[in-house]
Amino acid sequence: MELTTADCVSRTPVPLVLRSYLDELVHRTRAVCGPHLVSVLAVGSLALGDYRHGRSDVDVTVVVDDALPHRSLPELARKLAHPALHCPAAGLELVVYPRAFAARPSDAAGYLMDLNTGPSLPERVSYDAGESPAFWYVLDRSIAHQAGLPLYGRPVRDVIAAPRRAAVLTALRASVREHAQGEGHAADNRVLNGCRSVVYCRTGHWFAKRRAALIVAASEADFRPLLTEALRSFELPRESALALPGAAVREFLAWVAGRVDQALEAEGGHGTSL
């Protein structure tokens, strides 16, 4: 059974401000990929029910069959790039996977195309999965498997396999390391991603960043002032994010890294190489 955005409105948290945009994105993707299109899925903050207009990106996963001509990918990028398709969100992060790859657990990046575009995102398109750190894609597929919203085509569990827990924990360790360096990431997002990492280690499930921060704040009084300030900043547009105290952010992320390492040890090893 094929689904459109309109079919999902009554049972998903897709915001009204994005529905016509996502419908047009699906329409253009179907026009380019034709019968080779398997699924279009909303992932990220949309899937977790915590999209913040003016702050969040729109994250989309596209799955195509392995017979899709590779010449279709640059055409798809042109059709979906802002402003050819005006993105009402901070940006669009869209990843295209071949069906055979997406259907099995993997710790690789594995994409056919990775497109970043939009008003607040540096324009980028990659057709070589070897160009990108694999950990972001492992985390995205893990979130997609748990909570992805079908916009078109096959249901998420039919097309996206859950990466193994050890691979997810290894990916979390790499993401925390990158957030600790701080380059290219707002401080509030680094802190809230850290909260989400800790809650995943505890529960094996993905929570929206704000909910994860409240969970961690409830149990970790020493970090409560920083988490409260990060949540206050996250309510603001991306360009108006608050400056958080650097030493406190670094201390928190070092604590997060320790929790991820403990989870990896409990898993019976040091995970996989990403």
- Contiguous uncertain segments of 5+ residues: 1-11
Counting structural domains, the number is 2
Structural class: alpha+beta
Q: Major beta sheet, specifics?
A: 6 strands, mixed
How much β-strand is present in the residues? 5-15%
Question: How would you sum up this structure, described in words?
Answer:
Strand 4 and strand 5 form a beta hairpin. The N terminus is likely disordered. This protein is 49% helix and 12% strand. The chain has a six-stranded mixed beta sheet, sandwiched between helices. The chain is built from twelve helices and six strands. It is of the alpha+beta class and 274 residues long.
Summarize the structure.
With about 270 residues, the chain is an alpha+beta fold. It has helices at about 5-10, 15-35, 45, 70-80, 100, 135-145, 155-160, 165-180, 185-205, 210-220, 225-235, 245-265, and strands at about 35-45, 60-65, 90-100, 115, 125, 150-155.
How is the secondary structure organized here?
Blueprint: H1 5-8, H2 16-33, E1 37-43, H3 44-47, E2 58-64, H4 72-80, E3 92-98, H5 99-102, E4 113-117, E5 124-126, H6 135-147, E6 149-153, H7 156-159, H8 165-181, H9 187-203, H10 209-219, H11 224-234, H12 246-266
Parallel strand pairs: 2-3
Antiparallel strand pairs: 1-2, 1-6, 3-4, 4-5
